[in-house]
Amino acid sequence: MSQHKRRASAQQVRRKRAVVAAAFVGTVALGAGVGVWASADGGGGEPAGGTGQAPSKRASAAESSGATTPSSPTPSRSYPLSQAPRTIPAVRSHTPARGPGWRPRQGERVVVSDPELVDEGRLIAGELGLAYAGEKDDVRPGDLRLTLGSGGGNPESYTMTVRGGRVDISGPADAGVFYGTRTLKQEVHAGGTAPEGVVRDEPAKPVRGFMLDIARKPYTAPWIEDRIRELGDLKFNELGLHFSDDQGFRIESGTHPEIVSQDHLTKAQVKQIVDLAASRHITVVPEIDSPGHLGAVIAAHPDLQLRNAGGVPTKGAIDISKDASAKIVDDLLGEYAGLFTGDRWHLGGDEYQALTVADPQASYPQLAAAAQQKFGSGATVADLATGWLNDRADTVRAHDRTMRVWNDGFFRNTSVQPAKDLQVAYWTGKEIGARQPEEYLSAGRKVLNYNDEFLYYVLGQPQTFVYPTGQRIYERWNPRVLRGTTTVPAGFDGQILGGSFAVWSDIANAQTQDQVAAGIRMPLRATVQKLWDPGTPALSWADFRSLADRLG
Q: What b-and-e string marks burial along 155-169, b requiring 16 or more CB atoms within 10 Å of the CB?
């Protein structure tokens, strides 16, 4: 699965620019304040890196005598060697240099090399209180220039050069340039000055996600939009929305309005969320979980509920032996493919209760009969469930999406095999017949890390769940820790696409949405640090937490 944003259609570009323009209006007041403050000293600010060291004697003498400081000071050995910028996630490489660094001043420009960078240029100009000047070839003191480089390379990579009183951010694609502006924004807001030198940076993992369960607990659209802005500044590139479950169906539907919960997001609100996310290079990944977790759908269609041999209804489970069950789910998948325009989709597949009993064939004879009719005399209920997911994958694949399924939606010893292009969203090893991550990796599957031991924030802490801490993630987790605390062999690293921190709303009223935002603040920062660079961080946890407080 490519993590990179596809080239947008003209309509998508116009939509993205409208979102960025709105963001520009909302941030220009703050940005102008930054610009006025930054220009108040009339000089180059702190020495490179904003380290708090005293300015050189030459600079101090010029200031005390009232001499005018050049707008583009020439670097000299009177400046200490710069230090690497302090950002979250940390940059992968910084080549230090001697010089005053750069800080934004009101009236100075953001210029771009390519119309594809208009959105990135307008956004950072508004955030830093600079003037957006568009495509320009001339060079002026104080410029921030955004450039698309020629050639290949990781589209999420970028180079940021601070030299001669100017900043140049370049990358192979607009995503990388955007991440460079996030680094610059953090530097300026944290210390006032971007340090002299060259940053070369790129993520280790192409998927850096946050998943939100809005089915069991509705969240307001403004709250979700605030999380998107937070995620974008931290260089996350994925927002998962789990919006259908037993407790609710939370997005307006035109094909099946009868299933929609009273408290829900309109399609217009979702479109605004998707557009805002795209402007931050974040893909919104929808999940309509099936064949389990469909209680809200079943409530409006009780004839589709799975019942056992004794006629007892099975919670949240749809009867996959009925054609009407497939039709309603396919209707919804097709409808929302037009609303969620990203290239990824989550099919769910977990916790189908028919497969948690000792003898599924005896407990659910209608499923056993349907399996044998479709796949032959030896077929089982697990075969039927696998075939169900393959059929739903066919529906979504027609919309050109890459799909993932929870790991307990893959079953052992089935005659029907899951589609080869289904990725594994590995979250637990607690299910019946649990399979080790190595089984999926050895079979060549690509895997996403949702490890419930570290990355699950489950409201109310039911069963054995406890709220994860940023410190534990920062010190003990990395993308190869897929199950529990065990690390899979390094040879599988390339198949692990990344991971996602997840908020689940099992006990919906256990926390308010503001408490959730506060509770996940440091875990999100620790998670993205390890997805950007899975190695041992340079900062201690105490220093990392202090940096997060300084960055805001």
A: bbbbbbbbbbbbbbb
- Report the run of H or E that residue 347 belongs to, with start and end: strand 344-348
pLDDT in tens, 301-329: 999 999 999 999 999 999 999 999 999 99
Strand partners, 419: none
Terminal alpha carbon distance of the chain: 32
Q: Which two tokens stand for residue 5?
A: 């944003």
- Dihedral Cα 306, 310, 311, 313, nearest 10 deg: -50
Q: Which three-class secondary structure state does DSSP give residue 113? A: coil
Q: Count the Cβ atoms, other than its own, within 10 Å of residue 36.
A: 13
* E strand segments, 250-297: 283-290
Give the integer Cα–Cα distance in Å for 160 and 87.
Answer: 14
Owner of token pair 């289904």: 422
- Strands of the sheet containing 131-135, edge to edge, are 93-96, 197-201, 158-163, 166-171, 144-148, 109-112, 131-135
Q: How far is CA 473 from CA 233, 485, 501, 504, 537, in A?
A: 20, 11, 10, 18, 12
Number of H helices, E strands in the chain: 16, 20
CA distance 268 to 285: 17
CB of 124 closer than 8 Å to CB of 130:
yes
Query: With contact defined as beta carbons under 8 Å apart, do 343 and 283 qualify?
Result: yes
Query: Which residues lie below 8 Å from residue 28, measured CB to CB, with a gap of 6+?
Result: 126, 129
Within 8 A by CB and 6+ apart from 314, the residues are: 305, 306, 307, 308, 353, 354
Q: Is the pTM of this model over 0.85?
A: yes
Residue 49 burial (10 A CB sphere; 0-12, 13-18, 19+)? buried
- Alpha carbon separation from 458 to 128, 455, 506, 516 (Å, rounded): 37, 10, 6, 10
Sequence-ordered strand ranges (E) for 164-282? 166-171, 197-201, 207-213, 238-244
pLDDT tens figures, 407-456 = 999 998 899 999 999 999 999 988 877 889 999 999 999 999 999 999 99
Looking at per-residue confidence, does 25 or 193 come out higher?
193
Residue 472 has phi, psi (to 5 degrees) of -65, -40
Please name the helix (run of DSSP H) or strand (run of DSSP E) that holds residue 527, with its range, or none: helix 521-532
Residue 526 token pair? 């620790």
Q: Which two tokens stand for residue 361?
A: 């064939």
Please report the beta strands in 70-157, taking only residues with DSSP state E, as ranges in sequence order: 93-96, 109-112, 131-135, 144-148
* Calpha distance 438→443 (Å, rounded): 8
Name residue 134's beta-bridge partners.
111
Contacts of 129 (CB under 8 A, 6+ apart): 28, 30, 31, 32, 33, 34, 35, 36, 38, 104, 106
By the 10 Å C-beta count (0-12 exposed, 13-18 middle, 19+ buried), 472 is classed as middle
For residues 168 and 60, give the distance between their C-alpha atoms in angstroms, rounded to a whole number. 28
Question: 102: closest CA among 197, 235, 206, 18?
Answer: 197
| CA 45, chain centre distance (Å) | 34
